[in-house]
Design a protein that fits this description.
The chain has one domain. It is 7% helix and 49% strand. It contains one helix and four strands. A hairpin with a 2-residue loop joins strand 3 and strand 4. The radius of gyration is 11 Å and the shape is globular.
Length: 59
């Protein structure tokens, strides 16, 4: 599965990210992306309350 989404860093800066997953991801859930050198290396699901405030207000 290939996804393209807006992503925000801890300071609320926006970037459009394209990544793939081996399974279909859940809708209305939040992911923390491990992003290095222009590539998503991994991801994990997080709760909305755990998203940094500057990023959370942009969602």
């Amino acid at each position: 599965y290939k996804y393209t989404n807006k992503a925000y860093d801890k300071d609320g800066n926006e970037k459009e990210i394209t990544y793939t997953a081996i399974k279909k991801l859940k809708t209305n859930h939040y992911l923390e992306l491990n992003y290095k050198v222009g590539e998503v290396k991994g991801y994990s699901e997080v709760k909305e309350k755990d998203i940094p405030k500057k990023a959370r207000i942009k969602l």
